[in-house]
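Hello,

I think I submitted the S-adenosylmethionine job twice by accident. Can you confirm which output corresponds to this input? Input:
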Amino acid sequence: MKMLSSVVAYGCRYCAPLKHRFLYFTPRRPHHCSPPPLASTTVSPSCNLHNPNLFTGNSVFRGMERFWTGSGIKKSKAMVEHLQHYGVIRSKKVSEVMEAIDRALFVPEGTPPYVDSPMQIGYNATISAPHMHATCLQLLEENLKPGMHALDVGSGTGYLTACFALMVGPEGRAVGVEHIPELVASSIENIRKSAAAPLLKEGSLSVHVGDGRLGWPECAPYDAIHVGAAAPEIPPALIEQLKPGGRMVIPVGNMFQYLKVVDKNPDGSVSVRDETSVRYVPLTSQEAQLRGY
Ligand SMILES: C[S@@+](CC[C@H](N)C(=O)[O-])C[C@H]1O[C@@H](n2cnc3c(N)ncnc32)[C@H](O)[C@@H]1O
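Support: Only one job matched these inputs. Its output is below.
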């Protein structure tokens, strides 16, 4: 057993450090690329659960994490029920979709799929925590109605792209853009095993290799845009590709990041508000990401 003073987790709500907090862990499964660099001692997000044996201080999801740790729940349904219990999931549609797309198909082998934490997926990337996926689905729900167009920038494992595809259905369009080709290939394999497989086959769901800062103009304009990595500022191309009446959810910032909700009004003007503080990997170039940012 070892004690850590500071750790960075990505793809989760940022929770301020507690003065006396001990993180216990057991040795981690090795992964084929190095994790993001450890932060200085000034940063210590508490929602870093690479391992279900971690105890995480002041997270509002602490109760849920303890529950999972203790009982080893292995089902999407139980994960969803707990996100509902904590008020993260509030709608029937979001709960149905998160139950239907089994997270276990999207995390690397040996990774606990239902623990409320981001997990390493290689290439200095993570799959975001279930509470962040749920938060973003809730925020975008009205823009993910059947027939609508959705863009998932930094689609990683493909989990959220698959959720979007189920929500917009065969008449809609769900597009993932990810700049690591290997992640695109594995995300397509993941989706093929999931409830979204028919949509991939029929072509209303697709995942592409590309620089997500440029969006994916071919299927624009979008009713919903999700960005899964933190941008220094909102990329202009993404605002351009948002439909009037459309909504984008994007983490913005470097050390301090906020999940921003960007609404394009019917007259084309844009309103931006902060939803919550978060911690995500950066939206950056492929080279910067592979060398560790
Ligand atoms: C926190 S991960 C989230 C992945 C996805 N939402 C999930 O949960 O599986 C962020 C992803 O953004 C990707 N990314 C970072 N910068 C990018 C860029 N400029 N263009 C496309 N993808 C990018 C990373 O490779 C990584 O897969």
